Each structure stands twice: as C-alpha cells, then as structure tokens.
Amino acid sequence: MRDERLKKLADVLVNYATEVKAGDKVAISGEDCAIPFLKAVAKAAIQKGAYIEYYIDVPDIDKDLLCHGTQQQYAQPNQRFGACAASDVWISAWGSENVKTMQSVPAENMKQRRLANKENRKLYADRTASGALRWCGTQFPTNGDAQQAGMSLEEYEDFVYAAGYLYEENPVAKWKEIAQEQQKWVEYLNTKKELHILSVDTDIRVNIAGRTWINCCGKENFPDGEIFTSPVEDGINGYITFSYPAIINGHEFEQVHLKVEQGRIIEAVCKNPEQYADLLSYIDTDAGSRYFGEVAIGTNYGIQRHTKNILFDEKIGGSMHMAIGEAFQEAGGHNTSAIHWDMINDMTKAGKIYADGELFYENGKFLDEVCKK
Fold first, then answer.
1. Are 259 and 267 in contact (CB under 8 A)?
2. For residue 2, what pLDDT is reported?
3. At CA 159, angle to CA 155 and CA 160, rounded to 5?
4. What kind and span of H or E run contains 188?
C-alpha cells in the first residue's frame, strides 16, 4: 500500500528544502531498501523539470570490500559520493535493513576508507558552503532502523513522519514558523564570543567569536530543528561527558568523556575500557579529528526519545551536541577532516549554557526573557 506521507515528504524535499527548478541536475541516493523513497523523490523532481540521476548503495557489497579486499581496493574514493557532491541538488535517504552490517569491519580498514574520501568530503563542503550544491538528507523508515530505535516498523514510521510535522495540513508553513522562532536565538548568539556549557560531568568553554550561527529549519536535514556553528579551532577548553551513546558505523560508545585544551582533544575515554582502542581509531582519523567542527543546540521538541539515529538524536529538544572533525565553512569554520562525528548531551536535568557570562539556556529550554531585553 502506498504511504501518502512518503509522497508528502518527497514534495517537501523537492519544493521547500532544496527548491528544485527546471534544468537542475538532481542526484538521489539511498540504500537498496530505500527504493520507494528514490521513486517518490524522482517523480517529484521530474515534475519540476529536473534531470535526475540515482545512486543505490548495497551495504553487503561495501562490507565484503572492506573485509576481504586489499587496501588498494578499499582505499579508493567512493565514486557515488563524488558524483552526488558534483550535482546541483543532492537528496539523500538514510535507512538500512541492518544497521550492524559494518560492525565487524576492522577499524583500520574503515579509517582508510574515510581517508580515501577526504577529497570528496572537501568537494561536498566547498560546494554546500558556496551554495553551488543544495543538499538535504532525510530518513526512510526501515525495519533495521525501527529495531535499532526499539519500535515496530509502523511505530517508527509514525515517529519519523511526525518529527517532520508531515501530519500538518501545511508542513512547510510549520517549518517557516520554526525558522522564525529559531532566528531570534541565531541573531542573539551571532553577537557573542564565548559559550560556557555546564552539565553532568561537563564544564567546557567554547570560543565562537566571529563565527556564524546557522538556523536549521528543514533546508539541509529533514526533519530538522537545531542551531549550530563551527567553533574557533583552538578556542575550546575544559571537559565534556556525552550522556547519550556516541554511535558511528554500528559501534556504540557510552559516556564518551573528552578533555580539551586549546581546542585539541588530549584525553578520550568511554564507559567500557575494552572500547578505548576503537574510540581512538576514530578520534585519530587524521590531524583534524582531534579538533571540533561543530557546537549546536537541539530544538525539535517533537523528538523526545533517543533512537540511535543521529538525524533525530542531534535534534532532540533539550539537548546540545558537539562534533569532532570537519567544520562548516558557511559558519566560518576552518577545521578539515575525513570525519564529522556528532556526540550528544542531555541538558534537561542540570544543563546551563552561558553566552559571554549571561545565562540564556537552562534545563533544556531557552530563556525567552533574555531575548526580550
């Protein structure tokens, strides 16, 4: 049975998020289980007069390459990534039938694969920063992601589409309303030089002087709901413990604790000492992976549970996150890396964020009176 919510999602992605127009070269990508998504988005883009190309990932093949191929074979750039990054528009679906497919791949092989794609990541970063590439990634509900989130597929579909406000008669109007509400905090933070973030086992200062805050309202991620910037590379000092599991390539690291001096991670541990080596394999991907590319506040209060899916988890209303690695040029960031790994902290219990000494965020909520001064 056709899910009308998928058609609605495709319409929002094509007409609002990426504003596809006649003559655009549109790349559509996803895993083999997301073919219904590719079809829906392709139809919507074709109706706008776009030229489409579609790219299908098969995780089992990627796993075989990484587990059984030679370094010469797997340390090659991902041609699909490069082709999508070179398009006018790239609309991508996340979703997997088995989220653990890559879990047994040797960490060093994964590292070599990441490094091989460094130029593709740079192409993507440069073109999104300049506006040459309009990009939006979203979730296609699958059994694998539903199981990861602890839900049935039907429950997960409801969760995914509700997080995007697709049950609204006019979801685009809702996202424009969210954009307006977030913009006042973007403008407030654009005048500030330093954040002081306090939470459980967390006391960290982040230099944001001269950096631009970005209002995320469904234009690059969907569903959306965050404001972020790229911090000054050598301007972070203190320590932070991420309350939610940090997840990457099927690995889960609980209670990641980072100690930072002059922007550089000098100590990294997690709850399970047996995972230290794997954790460090990601943190030591390259020179830029011990520095931060992002600091952000999650604003989607329609998302109130952790689903082990970064698209939703980094948007949880009442959370903040930081990402190691690649920075955002459009925010003023300069750090380069083959990795961008978001780690999330719950701020609802004992969280406070000060901007230049002024408390503006407490226990997972913005303090509206601050903006009324």
1. yes
2. 57
3. 120
4. helix 171-189
Task: Please spell the DSSP secondary structure of 34-65, one letter per residue.
Answer: GHHHHHHHHHHHHHTT-EEEEEEE-HHHHHHH
Could you say which residues of the chain have pLDDT below 50? 1
> Where in 67-122 does DSSP place strands (E)?
89-94
Q: Going by DSSP bridges, is the β-strand pair 51-57/25-31 parallel, antiparallel, or unpaired?
A: parallel
| pLDDT value for 113 | 85
Of residues 290, 235, 295, the one with CA closest to residue 262: 235
**What are the strands of the beta sheet with 340-346, ordered from one edge?**
214-216, 226-229, 292-298, 319-325, 340-346
Positive or negative CA dihedral for 308, 145, 52, 77? positive
The SS3 call for residue 75 is: coil
Q: Are 321 and 345 in contact (CB under 8 A)?
A: yes
Tokens 């489409």, located at residue:
52
CA nearest to 221, candidates 328, 83, 361: 328
CA distances from 165 to 66, 237, 303, 308 (A): 38, 38, 11, 20
What would the two tokens of residue 137 be?
């990634």
Report DSSP state, residue 169. S
CA neighbor of 52 nearest in space, from 44, 60, 61: 44
Q: Is the pTM of this model over 0.85?
A: no
Percent of all residues in the chain with a pLDDT value above 70, rounded to a whole number: 99
Alpha-carbon distance of 97 to 35, in angstroms, equals: 12
